[in-house]
Design brief:
Radius of gyration: 53 Å
Distance between the termini: 176 Å
Helix content: 10-25%
Strand content: 15-25%
Shape: elongated
Structural class: alpha+beta
Order of helices and strands: HHHEEEEEEEEEEEEEEEEEEEE
Strand order of the largest sheet: 1-2-10-11-12
């Protein structure tokens, strides 16, 4: 019995160990335990831990990102619209400024051109021949500056004066200077020259050529007569002055009459087309400057009536009565500096010259000319509607972008007319 009991105890012990081993296997029937349970559990636990950590980080990351509210978006868009509008407004203003600046520069350039040309000719006004009879300033015999248009075509009437026209005459540096050798039989006769006088180039009519502008004048006394003409033909000793020249105002005497080459310039305002014009005294009128809305000349005279050279004692001329000394006919303007003359004073006498070249004696004592030139911008859309600022109104409504008319004034004292000062 004991042996059987012992064997039974051994069987129970083996069965207990077998049960322990079977306890570690998959409880599902038909499944084989490969001994991977603990390992898979550990790996699954580690994977879960890692996934949990990543999920936790992603959640934290998503939870901390923030967006814009509707109110913030509306405010931002409003600010952006205001800034953009200001930028476009500034660009529009700059565009208008850039558009106006070239026009302003053009106005200034046109003024410079006009002022340079007029001032240059005024500065030389009255220059006379250098040698022979009648040498010296032309104003000793006739006025080199006249307030009007002179020349072959459309001259102003005698004893007239205009504020927006001026005629200027002077002798340039030239060898074309001669004395009349024979009395002119008629006012259309050819001019015979003294070609043997010193300074007259041999074999030529003393340097004169066809088309040259010239003056003939009587040097016997001031205001004895003068004419301006263009040479239409010549020989070795004579000059012709045919049409379109007009006939001379007198038949000039020999020995006392002088012929010289001159520069003849007429400046005037074309009011209809708003242009500064230049006339050469013969056949050519040319525009110099466009968009000129004003041109004015003011003439200043020596106030002393004795400033015009006197004739010999006991003799008279157009500005002096005979006497010892001669008595001046010109008015005393008062003061010691040049005084402005009205247009009426430039036409009321005393009268000098003859025919269509007659002139007021006050023109012989002009010492200074004041020139005023006004220009406007060329574009209508840069001019406003204020007639006090614009001679020709335009369409620009914004005052800050308007370019008003511009005026410039300057004074010229011709050096050849101030010989006595």
């Amino acid at each position: 019995m004991t042996g059987i009991g012992d064997q039974g105890s051994g069987i129970v012990s083996r069965n207990s160990r077998l049960a322990n081993r079977l306890g570690t296997r998959d409880p599902k029937p038909g499944t084989r335990d490969l001994g991977l349970g603990p390992q898979l559990g550990t790996r699954a636990s580690g994977l879960g831990t890692r996934l949990g950590t990543r999920d936790s980080g992603l959640g934290t990351q998503l939870g901390t990102e923030s967006g814009f509210t509707l109110i913030e978006m509306v405010v931002s868009v409003g600010i952006m619209v205001l800034v953009t509008g200001a930028i476009f407004q500034m660009l529009g203003s700059n565009t208008n400024t850039f558009r106006a600046q070239p026009e302003v520069a053009d106005m200034q350039q046109r003024l410079r051109v006009a002022a340079d040309m007029i001032s240059k000719d005024l500065m030389d006004a009255g220059a006379g021949p250098e040698r022979g009879i009648g040498a010296g300033p032309l104003s000793l015999y006739f006025p080199p500056i006249r307030p009007g248009r002179t020349g072959a075509t459309s001259p102003d009437g005698e004893l007239t004066a205009s504020a927006n026209r001026i005629s200027i005459v002077y002798v340039p540096q030239t060898r074309a200077q001669a004395v009349v050798a024979s009395d002119l039989a008629m006012t259309t006769s050819d001019i015979v020259l003294r070609t043997l006088d010193p300074g007259c180039p041999a074999g030529t009519p003393c340097g004169f050529a066809n088309g040259m502008r010239a003056a003939i004048y009587d040097t016997s006394t001031v205001g004895a007569g003068y004419d301006l003409f263009s040479v239409t033909g010549s020989t070795a000793t004579t000059l012709q002055h045919a049409s379109p020249n007009v006939a001379f105002t007198k038949a000039y005497p020999k020995d006392f009459s002088r012929v010289v080459e001159v520069q003849h310039h007429v400046y005037y305002l074309d009011t209809e087309n708003r242009r500064l014009m230049h006339y050469d005294g013969f056949q050519g009128d040319f525009p110099l400057v466009d968009n000129v809305v004003g041109l004015n000349f003011t003439y200043y005279a020596d106030p002393d009536p004795n400033s015009v050279p006197k004739p010999p004692a006991g003799q008279a001329n157009c500005v002096y009565e005979a006497g010892t000394p001669p008595v001046p006919l010109l008015a005393n303007l008062g003061g010691s500096t040049p005084q402005p003359l009205t247009l009426a004073q430039l036409t009321d006498g005393p009268v000098c010259g003859s025919g269509v070249t007659r002139f007021d004696g006050d023109l012989l004592r002009i010492r200074k000319v004041r020139v005023t030139i006004g220009v406007q911008v060329g574009r209508d859309d840069l001019r406003g509607s204020d007639s006090t600022k614009f001679s020709q109104v335009g369409t620009m409504k914004t005052a800050a972008l308007q370019v008003p008319d511009y005026k410039m004034s300057f004074e010229i004292a011709p050096r050849n007319l101030n010989f006595g000062r």
